[in-house]
Amino acid sequence: MAVEKAGIKIKKKGGWFQKIPSDVLLSPGGMILILVALLLELLDLFPVPIIDQLWEAPLEIAFIILLVLIAKVPLKSLIVPFIIERIPGISDLLPTWLIRLFF
User: Fold this and answer.
1) In three state form, how does the secondary structure of 29-84 look?
2) Contact by Cβ (8 Å): 67, 78
3) What is residue 69's predicted lDDT score, i.e. its pLDDT?
4) Spatial separation of the C-alpha atoms in residues 10 and 67, rounded to whole Å
5) Mean pLDDT score, 13-25
6) What residues contact 30, with CB distance under 8 A and at least 6 apart?
7) What is the dihedral of CA 5, 32, 41, 67, to 10 degrees?
8) Predicted confidence (pLDDT) per residue in 40-78, tens digit
9) Beta bridge partners of 4
10) pLDDT on residue 97
11) Cα separation of 92 and 35, whole Å?
12) Hey, how many other C-beta atoms are within 10 angstroms of the C-beta on 39?
């Protein structure tokens, strides 16, 4: 599916994972997204079983809201990474914030 803006055809990528354009990532809002993503990954380095979910889940939800508002990422593309992040063991090995930002 292609969308035409200012005489330029832009091919919209469908599917579950959508790449965020570099101009969005380099904007002030994009920098906030990157900082929150790095914070989430740093919190994953310190596994504290109960407390971990107390601060990580609200930050994940805030990150999803920021992605929808700033990067205009469809909500359906954020469902699978959010579920993956809830699975113990996999969430420590697979940086889902990386999937959300770049793939």
Assistant:
1) HHHHHHHHHHHHHHHHCCCCHHHHHHHHHHHHHHHHHHHHHHCCCCHHHHHHHHHH
2) yes
3) 92
4) 20
5) 67
6) 20, 24, 70, 71
7) -40
8) 888 877 777 776 678 878 888 898 899 899 988 888 878
9) 9
10) 63
11) 19
12) 14
| Six-digit token string for 32 | 């906030």
User: How many other CB atoms sit within 10 Å of the CB of residue 2?
Assistant: 8
Token pair for 27: 């904007």
Tell me how far apart the alpha carbons of residues 47 and 31 are, in angstroms, rounded to a whole number: 26
58 Cα distance to chain centroid: 14
Please state whether the predicted TM-score (pTM) of the whole model is above 0.90.
no
pLDDT of residue 44: 75
Where does residue 73 rank: exposed (0-12), middle (13-18), buried (19+ CB within 10 A)? buried
